[in-house]
């Protein structure tokens, strides 16, 4: 799904901080992004604090000598539905196709529950999932096994689906999961290949040492890929 941060939260917060400080909104954005990345890279800061945008905004505002009135969690609630949010790539249709008594469909997201759940609710996606995992569920990031709680023991076959290479390919493979990588763009010659043949043909960067089990260019391909993995 597409959330409301880029269309509502960031514009509202950055505009207020720019107005109160006289700084350009691009500079405000740079400082906010840097604070978020620094927190994620600091092992002494919890994943919950690292992804708490209201706290990040407040810290940046305090550093700039002002007090921020806008609250991200309230902006998210006010803009949780369209046009500020959207279901992407027919994900709702695909999830309904995947629904089955023998499967658990679990959200695994880097965003905190208070920012993600209102959007899932507004888009009608929440009932399609068995569980929702966020950093505040077990105080861990997706790259850590603790993030998944009891699911690694509960599910004999675990399939990770996502578009982030480190979180959705590298980490899942380390944890014994099958990995399905949804890439943003795929050359026509790769589109014509079987999803399980695409990983061998994909041009990885020098740092990308782990191959997914399959590569998707459309979520519509996912049900058949999952069915094949279940038969193996």
What does it look like?
- Helices cover 47% and strands 8% of the residues.
- The protein has 13 helices and 5 strands.
- The model has no long low-confidence stretch (mean pLDDT 97).
- β3, α10 and β4 form a beta-alpha-beta unit.
- It is mainly alpha-helical.
- α1 crosses α2, α2 packs across α4 and α5 packs parallel to α7.
- The longest helix is centred in the N-terminal third of the chain and has 17 residues.
- A 3-stranded parallel beta sheet has the order 3-4-5, sandwiched between helices. Strands 1-2 form a two-stranded parallel sheet.
- The chain has 2 domains: 74 residues; 141 residues, HAD superfamily/HAD-like (Rossmann fold, 3-Layer(aba) Sandwich), CATH 3.40.50.
- It starts with a helix and ends with a helix.
